[in-house]
Design brief:
Layout (H helix, E strand, L loop, with lengths): L2 H13 L9 H15 E4 L4 H14 L3 E6 L4 E6 L5 E9 L5 E9 L2 E2 L3 H21 L1
Antiparallel strand pairs: 1-5, 2-3, 3-4, 4-5, 5-6
Length: 137
């Protein structure tokens, strides 16, 4: 089942929840896995500081204002103001290999944004930024 179908099924069930049986837990779990996959990328580097700098640069390039950056803990929070204010929290997690996992969670009105394009834009820009950071270092 595609993510669009999973989301549609969940929305349908939520609108007609009083008239239909409860949502299938397997469908909810599948939706959570797809969302997690959309929000996470692994990069072939073990330089946590370079990744943090790349994330900050990327967020600023996407017109976010950095609210908090705690590179020791590996978290960066930012806000984008305008007609549709967005809050973004990015977590950096070194993996046992020479890789780093980056997880981004975007929210609008305190609800997680589930549009894949939001995360694709962020990770595509981050990939370019990390290539630039490596070339400069």
């Amino acid at each position: 089942m595609t993510m669009t179908r999973a989301i549609a099924a969940i929305l349908f069930a939520s609108f007609f929840g009083g008239c239909s049986p409860p949502i299938d837990p397997a469908l909810v779990k599948q939706h959570q896995i797809l969302l997690q996959k959309m929000q996470t990328r692994v990069f072939d580097t073990n330089d946590k500081n370079a990744v943090a700098r790349g994330i900050i640069s990327t967020l600023q390039d996407l017109n976010f204002i950095i609210a908090k950056a705690d590179t020791a803990r590996g978290t960066i929070s930012a806000r984008k103001f305008g007609d549709y204010p967005i809050e973004m929290t990015v977590t950096i997690q070194p993996l046992p290999t020479t890789q780093i996992s980056v997880h981004g969670e975007a929210r609008y009105n305190s609800k997680i944004i589930e549009n894949p394009a939001t995360y694709q834009e962020f990770f595509s820009s981050l990939q370019k930024s990390l290539l630039t950071v490596r070339a400069v270092d």
